[in-house]
């Protein structure tokens, strides 16, 4: 049984979506999703089999002007394939309640035309005419230490203890060995401040979840997590559980531990700043024992703040233990994330279609995450963003490209994530418009690539409820909602898989930076009103360290 199937579609349909949906989906993305749905309905009818993915089986295939097709005129390579500018691609549907991505954007196929023949063939080999792209992200051998099995066993043990407790096997007398110690992360709406004071967007939530897990790891507690279903969807509908089962019912858990013999404790560090996190996590200074912070058998945490990197920098108690586990300041976030959460199968296939391009030997890939303002998403008709304003991102990318390009990089790929449709359109136009290209890219071996997914509002927190343009209309359509949340996940994962990334100084890009394998591969750029203070991106000292990133916004 797959995890997706566990998410009863019936339940989901009954969810009352609230105002807080605005934190996740904005007018712009709703519109985009609707358009996409229509598109996928009509596209096959309108274009029929003309635009399919071609299997190159013989040479009589209609000639193509695509740069790679000349190079790849293998008479006899039946395994070779061709993706062209009008390729549509079906991802196998994983069941009613799960997310099925649209086809990748044309810009992906266009960039593929310029990679080396060897890389192209490997790309083809990973693609199956029936199954599409593999959903295996190949996360093994990622240099993540040796703690995983130990923790999975601990979790198993804690869950068994919990089952015993639930079944009433203990009636009042429990020895310390029998007590199921747990810590949980919960994300709920704050009923007093609808929409604005919840647990934040994807990045905020990731900070809270991963740090709470880190606490569990350091204190031998079992670990559970939950997103309130209506806020905006259950965690299980967005992520699979590759290693441990972290699903639980917060109400049931609360009730269970609400006894004299057991006991529970609530921790809330939502929106804490640097100083307050210090007093919450290290009240006794660097020698702080996390076990002494909260002693109740069940600790429930609400948080959108991180303290993992902080622990590496600050703690004297845990340095040896962490070193023995093989965890470091730069691998912890990534390793914990991959251990706990895996995007659903459809999302992984989509991710792989791009990830493989980004990581080709013949490709130098640079991600650009440009967060404009909420205005662009709320009122697309008033979106005036363009690269005249945002030129410093491209200048930085160009300088970085010129500094990092090696002879084996036949092609450079710029991959843009943004909340502005206008900006995305102009970016894509640079593939074909020589005027724009000369002005902003200044190189003929650079391709612009985007996902084409609905523009998701990337920093939920600030979007708040100001765009409550008919949220009720969405209530009945879980699929749309799921597509929005999955787009944010796909975008974030993809940004972590580029060779380098230029990020806006908010949480979203930072999470991708922490998730990247190379800690010296991210440059953060200032807000547009301070663009004159951008660093020189060709300078090897311009990379933003994890230490610096961990002092910003949701900390680290
Ligand atoms: C393709 O076939 C022709 C003759 O049929 C041959 O001359 C040529 O070398 C072949 N090319 C490849 C790549 O095998
Ligand atoms: C094509 O076929 C020839 C002879 O059958 C073989 O030597 C060659 O390796 C094949 N090339 C490819 C690309 O499969
Ligand atoms: C626990 O259960 C046992 C037998 O089931 C019973 O004899 C004992 O009185 C119970 N203790 C309490 C504290 O309920
Ligand atoms: C995970 O735990 C939840 C809650 O205990 C349970 O309902 C579910 O069946 C478990 N999932 C798996 C795959 O074991
Ligand atoms: C290229 O972009 C410029 C600037 O936006 C525009 O004026 C011009 O019409 C475009 N050219 C083509 C061929 O679309
Ligand atoms: C929102 O949509 C619902 C259902 O589609 C409709 O009944 C309602 O009148 C709409 N409200 C506004 C403010 O447009």
Automatic annotation (TrEMBL):
**Tell me, what is one Gene Ontology molecular-function annotation carried by this entry?**
alpha-(1->6)-fucosyltransferase activity
Top-rank taxon of the source lineage equals: Eukaryota
Q: Where is the composition biased (Low complexity)?
A: 62-80
Q: Where is this region: Disordered?
A: 57-86
A biological process term (GO) from this entry: protein N-linked glycosylation
Please give the start and end residues of each transmembrane region. 21-42
Answer whether the UniProt record assigns the keyword Transmembrane helix to this protein. Answer: yes
Q: Which UniProt keywords apply?
A: Membrane, Transmembrane, Transmembrane helix
User: What is the designated name of this protein?
Assistant: Uncharacterized protein
The species this protein belongs to is Absidia glauca
The gene it comes from is ABSGL_02420.1 scaffold 3452
